[in-house]
Design brief:
- By secondary structure, this protein is mainly β.
- It has two domains: 12-134, Factor Xa Inhibitor (Irregular); 146-234.
- Helix content is 4%, strand content 46%.
- It contains one helix and 19 strands.
- The protein has one helix spanning 74-83, and strands at residues 12-15, 18-19, 23-27, 32-37, 50-56, 59-65, 87-92, 99-112, 120-134, 146-148, 153-155, 164-169, 175-176, 178-180, 186-189, 192-194, 203-204, 211-219, 226-234.
- The strands form five sheets. Strands 2-1-7-8-9-6-3 form a seven-stranded antiparallel sheet. A six-stranded mixed sheet has the order 11-12-19-18-15-16, with no helix packed on it. A two-stranded antiparallel sheet has the order 4-5.
- A hairpin with a 2-residue loop joins strand 15 and strand 16 (192-194).
């Protein structure tokens, strides 16, 4: 008999557009249901009767290699723990179309330093409210897909089913805007919501000769997001 099993390797946990780096294990949400005992003298066959009460989305547990350079991921989670911040997270399984989207508080954050082994970290995310299971991919970008200001040269040509691009601008360019188009869903450019067909706010570029990562995410309610990554190079000074 064949199998529809999906390998776990390649799953991600993201906070906004930023993936939490070097995870080795992601588990949850561990959903459960409270029950109320309604057994009465009329219950049949001497068995207890129950009804389902409140649902609990439970927790998400993660483990990984501690990476202090992951300032937008691991370190931000510790900051959120100290600030008691509620944050939206997205788990994407390795099939890239199955996602869990949920809000959570960090309720535990721990590092470990074994004598013979990699320095590790673990965290527990307490889910608040209802998590959303997405098993269908969002439509994503639609024609004319996206454009970049300042006469950026983009390779390959933009398309809805192409998710990674390389772009270049002249040395004198210090910032660009991105104009994405999507017929459905919410669009974000570097985590900032953008209206379809309108330019994003200015995205500052690094020094001449450096590369800036730009992400466009399109998310429809109840569906897994589609993410487009643009590696934009500011030409080196001559």
């Amino acid at each position: 008999m064949g199998t529809n099993a999906i390998i776990g390797y390649g799953a991600t946990l993201k906070k906004g557009d930023d993936a939490i780096a070097e995870l080795t294990s992601i588990s949850g949400p561990s959903q459960s249901a409270d029950t109320i005992d309604i057994t009465s003298h009329d219950s049949s066959d001497s068995y207890k009767d129950y009804i389902v009460a409140l649902l609990d989305a439970g927790e998400v547990s993660i483990e990984g290699n501690f990476y202090p350079g992951d300032s937008a991921g691991q370190i931000t989670m510790h900051t959120d723990f100290q600030a008691k911040s509620k944050v939206e997270y997205v788990i994407t399984l390795s099939d890239t179309t199955t996602t869990w989207t949920f809000n959570a508080y960090i309720t535990a954050f721990e590092t470990g330093a074994p004598l013979d082994g990699a320095t590790s970290f673990s965290a527990t995310l307490k889910v608040t409210g209802k998590p959303t299971l997405g098993i269908t991919a969002s439509t994503g970008l639609t024609d004319p897909w996206f454009s970049i200001s300042e006469s950026a040269v983009v390779v390959p040509d933009a398309a809805g089913a192409t998710y990674t691009y390389v772009a270049t601008v002249l040395t004198a360019v210090t910032s660009v805007t991105v104009t994405p188009t999507a017929a459905a869903g919410t669009i974000t450019v570097d985590s900032n919501t953008v209206t379809s067909g309108e330019a994003s706010s200015a995205i500052a570029l690094g020094d001449a000769g450096t590369v800036t990562e730009i992400t466009i995410v399109v998310t429809e309610s109840g569906k897994s997001p589609k993410t487009y990554t643009i590696w934009l190079t500011r030409a080196a000074a001559e």
